[in-house]
Amino acid sequence: MPPPSEFTLDLRRRARIGLDETVFCAGKSSAQIAAIVARFDRAGASALLTRLDPDKIEALPAAMRARLDYDAGSHTAIFGKPRRRPGRATGRVAVVSAGTSDQRVAREAARTLEYYGVGATEIADVGVAGLWRLIDRIDVIRRHRVVIVVAGMDAALPSVVGGLVSGVVIAVPTSVGYGVAAGGATALNAALASCAPGVTVVNIDNGYGAACAALRILGGARAT
């Protein structure tokens, strides 16, 4: 196990901002991740882990793996019980993705909301290359106060959705695409340059950040 000096948990973050500290696993070794989760366990705290690759979770102690709710599609894991909002309706946020290749990022957003007990309506593969797919689902999307839109390549979908719904639209550009897609830079610039008024944009592939923005809009997770 790595020495404790390698990390300091922020166990009071939820009291300050209504959101727990989340473990970003990219760049961390399995030994570091195991030590961090063990510290959460000793504190009696739950935790959300993001960017947890399958090979890293396989390297964790078997007893710890058994206590993690791991979702391979999003590379996320939940340690402990997800937060709950008794009496709250499910499906308060729509998570809309342009294509199947955007699903990992979309699922990261949905899993973050799940951790906080907020239901997500996931709507996949409605990119603008086949606009009828979006139109077929637009009435469902319009029922949500917050809509997270995940798209790569030219990232046209957030602008289209932003022109069709009255709720808050949070764009998540992804790194999906060939050549000049430039690892998501083109999608990011397109989202930032959207002519649909009021579209909010988070960083490339940041489904977690989009979900946290949605939680703040809904009143934060303080009531969980």
Describe, in plain words, how this protein is organized in 3D.
This protein is an alpha/beta fold. It has 2 domains: 4-79, no CATH class; 93-217, Rossmann fold, CATH 3.40.50. The protein has helices at residues 13-17, 30-42, 54-58, 62-65, 103-115, 131-141, 157-162, 185-192, 207-217, and strands spanning 22-24, 47-50, 68-71, 76-79, 93-97, 120-123, 146-151, 168-173, 200-201. Strands 6-5-7-8-9 form a 5-stranded parallel sheet. It has a 4-stranded mixed sheet with strand order 1-2-4-3, sandwiched between helices. The longest helix is centred in the N-terminal third of the chain and has 13 residues, at 30-42.
* Termini separation: 32 Å
Average per-residue pLDDT, rounded, comes to 89
| CATH topology heading of the largest domain | Rossmann fold
For the record, the count of structural domains works out to: 2
Shape summary: globular
Helices, by number, come to: 9
Spatial order of the strands in the main sheet? 6-5-7-8-9
Order of helices and strands: HEHEHHEEEHEHEHEHEH
Architecture of the largest domain in CATH?
Answer: 3-Layer(aba) Sandwich
Q: How many beta-strand runs?
A: 9
In short:
The chain is α/β, with parallel strands linked by helices and 224 residues long. Helix content is 34%, strand content 17%. It has nine helices and nine strands.
List keywords for this structure.
four-stranded mixed sheet; alpha/beta; five-stranded parallel sheet; Rossmann fold; 2 domains; globular; 9 helices
